């Protein structure tokens, strides 16, 4: 079956807690449910939206955490990737932004689109060390390097907030 080509310009939101862990989602391609993976929060910018605005909107839609666009720092990396998901052959320009969140941040899938609810199975806060040592699949593959840029740029004070 021929895939539908799709070009997307996306913002990837990296919520980082007071322990320098990033929030990732766990899910699967609906055509490959037996190949789950961890992935960053984010999605395509809508008409007239900046990438930081898209990051803020996606953070709320995908995990229920509210933030303003100007609270994001970065970008901490960008790349163009190609992959297939469902019936699409996607070329994605992705840019990574970070936001510091409290250790008490509540995650909710209530605002996801139905296809996201159907293909997202869990969430987890990951440290760079846990990602380095896991055998589980996660994207992007250079996420640990991106996380280290974020935490070096905004260290956490003992009280749990960024400085």
Name the beta content range. 35-45%
CATH architecture label name:
Alpha-Beta Complex
CATH level 1 name: Alpha Beta
Low-confidence stretches: 157-163
| Annotated CATH homologous superfamily | Nucleoside Triphosphate Pyrophosphohydrolase
Please count the beta strands (DSSP E, at least 2 residues each). Answer: 8
In terms of structural class, how would the helical and strand content be classed?
alpha/beta
In DSSP terms (H or I, runs of 4 or more residues), the helix count works out at 4
Please indicate the count of domains: 1
Tell me, briefly, the overall form: globular
Q: Please give the radius of gyration in angstroms.
A: 15 Å
Please tell me the overall pLDDT. Answer: 93
Instruction: Describe the strand arrangement of the main beta sheet, using strand numbers.
Output: 4-1-6-5
Q: Helix and strand succession?
A: EEEEHEEHEHEH
Give the end-to-end Cα distance, rounded to a whole number of Å.
Answer: 52 Å
Helix percent band: 10-25%
CATH topology term: Nucleoside Triphosphate Pyrophosphohydrolase
InterPro entries: Nudix_hydrolase (IPR020476), NUDIX_hydrolase-like_dom_sf (IPR015797), NUDIX_hydrolase_CS (IPR020084), NUDIX_hydrolase_dom (IPR000086)
Pfam family, one: NUDIX
Keywords: Hydrolase, Magnesium
Family: Belongs to the Nudix hydrolase family.
